[in-house]
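User: Hello! I'm new to structural biology and keep hearing that structure can be predicted from sequence alone. Could you demonstrate with CocE/NonD family hydrolase? Please show me the input and the output so I can see what each looks like.

Assistant: Of course. The first part below is the input, the amino acid sequence of CocE/NonD family hydrolase. The second part is the output, the predicted structure written as tokens.
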Amino acid sequence: MKRRRATTWAASSLVAALALTGTLTGPVAAAQDRAGEVATATDPVTHAENDRVPEGSVWTQSYFPSSDNSGTELHADVLLPEALAKKKKRVPVILSVGPYFGHSGQTGPENWTHTGPSNRFQDFIEGTDLFDEGYAFVMVDLRGFGGSTGCLDWGGPGEQADVKAAIDWAAKQPWSTGAVGMYGKSYDAVTGLIGNNLDQRALKAVVAQEPVWDMYQYIYSNGVPRPNVTGTANAYNSIATVDQMADDDPRYLANSRWEETHPECLTENSAGYRIADQRDKHWTSRDLARMAKGTDTPLFVTQGFIENNTKPEEMQEYLANHKGPGRGWLGQWDHVRGGDHTSDGRLAMGREGWYEETLSFYDQYLKGVEPKVDYPAYSVQDSTGTWRAQKTWPVVERSATLPLGDGSYVDDGGASARVGLAPSGEATPGPRKQPSGEWDMENAPALDPAAPKGLAKGQAKRQTAGEITSSFFVWSKPVKRAVRVTGTPQVSLTAKGTGNVMAKLYDVAPDGTAVMFDEQVSLLDSGKLTVDLKSTDWTLAAGHVLAVEIGSIQTGSWRDTPSGETIKVKNARLQLALDAPADDRPTAGARSPFLDTYLRQYTVELPPGPASFTIPSVGRH
């Protein structure tokens, strides 16, 4: 496959520089005119006429109604293969629907000198040689963003209607074969999941990188608000009201200013995020994992198990409910795309071939071309950085319900644990810090704040002395052979008291260093409680111990309100899905660079304590 160098948009920069110096004359002025041509539905524009149009394509713009009869008008930027457009040949369509396709920039002004289609997925276009391969690429603005009218409806019925309309529209155009695939990352991966859930015949395949599987989980954890509970609403309100380019066509500009005459849209959008009850209709209509039941669109996903933004929550439920062909790259990375590189040139996920495999996936399901490479259904990187091939995820050799017993803690937000650091020689830290929470789904912090140095070790020591502090620990016996914790761990308990609870899992080495690799929180009332942790794929080496911490929320990852009560926990249990690394079938891939960043952030001192449960062995004996 050919590789084009990343576009530098040099012409735009040159025109900008000359404009600032007032030296735009003669041929250069003419070049500016050519560089800024604006497409319409009937007047296509090429790269030669507007340097923001990708090479090898022609750009047009179209408008069409959403499917909910609300009067919402959606805007689409259409990029057709230039060579095939001249021959009026029909092509399959790759569709992306989202909030980041505004002509002035994805989340804010990007200093363009003239309008043109978004370059959000230029990496995908170039990496696949998309137009040479005979595909169209269509970018549709969700309601309220870019050139579309209507009120924002984050993952809700309105946006679901937009996705439905976009798929139908793309399939019925005279230049379309009627076969549509969806592509996206983060928010526009969410719309891909929505597309799958709609189960439309025209949608033949979905590629969704790092999506949110249940919209509620991005804002709350079992009733406990996250730091972005208000900030994400503010971020999307801000994106919706970004000024677009002055040379955009009048219809686009009028639509982009929708919120100016409909300020209630922003207020209503913010109000939805403040609903904490997961059972409220606002959130049940956005539970994408539940809504995926019985769907069968071929689906290719990526998910970082240790990423701090769109976390692997309800992922297993979504994949289990989806009954169609499944493909996935799953591993130990942050919020990145399959083809992303780090600043030093390493692949962010660690695996070669993202664009080739993605193109093969689309060729198979949109064109009926049999793959030339036998790709694994799931390529999975575990916590050792090693890649394996699987037919599905998770592969579970044994399920185990492990008794954790009883314990008590004070729901004080970690205050007693922090005070307890001072006698052991550690400086007493101040109140725990929280992120600002002002982020959208593309721009969250890569890491949560680390726990204070010595916190876990100090709490375990005080627990051994009989004190009740902000949490308590339970330890397993050392595992006899390597075992992998996979799928979605679950903690169940009976509590007396009201407040918050946090459950954490640690991989504890014989030297007392421990890595926190999974966590979850919940509001808590007296009675029984069951909490799903994040999905994971973590290997405990032979001789290592699994430690479970149950207690008050002690990090800045949530905006909890500690009750101050002493919570008594009875009959706590941990349910695990276990797999045997010895049975792995290796596949190509290197260690994700982010894994080492994560290990540095979340490795603490936590010497193994008295063992109270045994993790059963799995695999070959």
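User: So the tokens describe the shape?

Assistant: Right, they're a compact way of writing down the 3D structure. Reading them back into a model, for example: Residues 157-172 form the longest helix (16 residues).
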